[in-house]
Amino acid sequence: MLYHGTPDNFDEPPILMPQTKGRDFGLGFYLTTYKEQAESWGNLIHQRRFYMWLKANNYPFPAPNETPTRFLKEYQKYYEKDYYIKIYSLDLKELKEIYNITEFKKYDEEWFDFVIYCRDNPNYKPNHDITIGPLADGGDLPNIILRYKDGEIEKEEALGLIKFKKDNDQYCIHNDTYCENI
Questions:
Q1: Domain containing 10: what range?
Q2: Are 135 and 171 in contact (CB under 8 A)?
């Protein structure tokens, strides 16, 4: 089973989701085998959307420790739920026979270079159909990448710093045709 966390309730997954710009594996439809991870993604996108909604409606941003309850009722008129968890069943063995898949089995330099390239090129959509691999720890990722590019830290140290602390994975579908059929 693969899970997708999203604030949008849809039947068919959209392939070029705007919130996937500048993510680990480029533009695409992101899935994971970890339900908790999908819930985290759905909640994160919901929070980002909420803050964009506040800005678009000229509401003041809440203080860091403030719960913006005074705006939530207004916001919830537009979004009935914080997020949805979509569940998909994919046969990886079958996929590998039909589609062009790039799989990173571990955190290594090849994975690191690919993640940096995708994050540096927010509209990048790889030529292969699906990318599979570990998740970068996004907490301080932009700063770590900047420190690496500025030569403050070596690639090996940067790689160690962006390894996610929990078990994880991500599947990114870049192929519109496949996305329509899951």
A1: 2-107+122-135+167-181
A2: no
